[in-house]
């Protein structure tokens, strides 16, 4: 038993190293001087310096972060506004082809973004939506809307029929029952979906790389372009990445219970 | 225009290899993590928290992190190798790049797999396990003859999900290698990007590759839908 205990401890240790070391490497690098970064053996104990952050924050990077914020907030807003009533309808209304529609929605979630990017690129070229934040907001719906509809449908399925019927008896319209009963009842699910959709939008890379050129570039894509410089600025890359992922990591730690439910609950059903 | 396209078939092979490596690796690792977390080990909350971390991180930034890890000069991996064996490896070179990229793919996919398996494990009935334990079954026998068969539906669904997701992986590989060196990690999405949006952009050919990728994904998705519906209707 003693042996098994230590074997488990070693396994857990290895797992933690595998999952955490890249994170540690990146974050520490962002607060090291370039000399410390390239030192061999690596410097383990050092005074953190914020130079890389200072340089980034004085440059264009805040603009890229603002783009990330605007685009992700905008797309989540539209996603939830369209997705919540859609999910409620799919959960409650009985109509022909409902099942096929549900599966089609699930199917679009699995489409490779890179495959959709080409037709969207051509359409945006005509519409003048290339390198445009609104264009990104709209295209992010392709992955977030199906996800939210699918997950929220699962949450709306759990609203007891008796509650909705009682509301109708009391003279609520369908819209009233949706707004006053169904939405409050599923608010944890709606919150989970909002966070999840926001994370996916904030982290998006493929569409933005292809559809944004200069003005609409978000933080994730800006980071990739740092490699195009003649001398790779590792410190800036590390600091920029840390700043970009910090809000997501914080949010997912705070909402991890909701997130785990949102991630596993919805997809395992049906 | 020739009748066949060498790079296309290379990229199909790369995609299949990448998807198999990532799926196989993350299923095994994910199952391990789920089993560890299922048995109430100490600090379980902390472990869950850490394990789900890669889920929250953008694939592009995940790729970036590992690009730092793999760096020949200052990467941690080479530092460890050098101090233990006295050698340095160019992880993202022709011979090892696909495996190196797959390790990153596993890093991103395994937490998701683990979460699903954990949910599956927690929904299993207790009674058969207790009965078998009374009969003197070993931990391995329990796993092999009870856990695995009972989790079969979950495992199938998760496997297909992971394959579909691996087939469309783009961000991390783009940052790590851009499909290179040469064609070493040129999976279909990267090939599509090179053809459709590279220096000499051929939109028609890019669209064809994009369509092949969609067909492949949709075929797998159709199987997935069938599989996940069966237990419910039975």
Structure description:
The complex is a heterodimer of chains A (270) and B (234). With 270 residues, chain A is an all-alpha fold. Chain A is built from 14 helices and no strands. Chain A starts with a helix and ends with a helix. With 234 residues, chain B is mostly helical. Chain B is globular, with a radius of gyration of 21 Å. The interface between A and B is large, with 67 and 69 residues.
Distance between the termini of chain A: 41 Å
For the CA atoms, what is the radius of gyration of chain A? 23 Å
Number of helices of chain A: 14
**CATH topology group of the largest domain in chain A:** MetI-like fold
* Shape, principal axes of CA atoms of chain A: globular
Uncertain spans of chain A: 266-270
Total beta strand runs of chain B: 0
Please provide the count of β strands of chain A. 0
What structural class do the secondary elements of chain A suggest?
Answer: mainly alpha
Largest sheet of chain A: none
Oligomer: heterodimer
* Major sheet description of chain B: none
How would you spell out the order of helices and strands of chain A? HHHHHHHHHHHHHH
Number of domains of chain A: 2
Radius of gyration of chain B: 21 Å
**What count of structural domains of chain B?**
1
Determine the number of helices of chain B (DSSP H or I, runs of at least 4 residues).
11
CATH domain class of the largest domain in chain A: Mainly Alpha
Overview features:
heterodimer; A: 270 residues; mainly alpha; MetI-like fold; 14 helices; 78% helix; disordered C terminus; B: mainly alpha; 76% helix
What would you say about this model in short?
By secondary structure, chain A is mostly helical.
Secondary structure elements and pairings:
The complex is a heterodimer of chains A (270) and B (234).
Chain A: H1 2-30, H2 34-37, H3 51-58, H4 61-92, H5 98-109, H6 113-127, H7 133-157, H8 161-169, H9 174-185, H10 187-203, H11 206-211, H12 219-225, H13 234-254, H14 256-268
Chain B: H1 6-38, H2 44-51, H3 53-56, H4 59-70, H5 76-85, H6 97-122, H7 127-134, H8 139-167, H9 171-176, H10 188-197, H11 203-233
Helix pairs in contact in B: 1-6, 1-8, 6-8, 8-11, 10-11
